Amino acid sequence: MDILYLLIPLSAVLVLLIVGIFGWALHRGQFDDVEREGSRILEGDPPAVDGDQSAATSPPEQSRTSAV
């Protein structure tokens, strides 16, 4: 019976924490466009943001001429 004095306030704090995190997610716009996020996985790779950030750069090739 004494454990209830610990578990009831602990569960109340947990519920308040969960409600707070959910409210924060709503405020930050996490649930604004759910259909767009569901169809985003079916699309191709997004375009590069900046030319400097492109991961598709290849190192410069060396010439294939050989000295004889």
TrEMBL record:
Keyword list, A-Z: Membrane, Transmembrane, Transmembrane helix
Coiled coil: none
Top-level taxon of origin: Bacteria
Organism: Pseudaquabacterium pictum
Transmembrane segments: 6-26
InterPro entries documented for this protein: Cyt_oxidase_maturation_cbb3
Region listing for Disordered, in residue ranges: 40-68
The name this protein goes by in its record: Cytochrome oxidase maturation protein, cbb3-type
Biased composition (Polar residues): 54-68
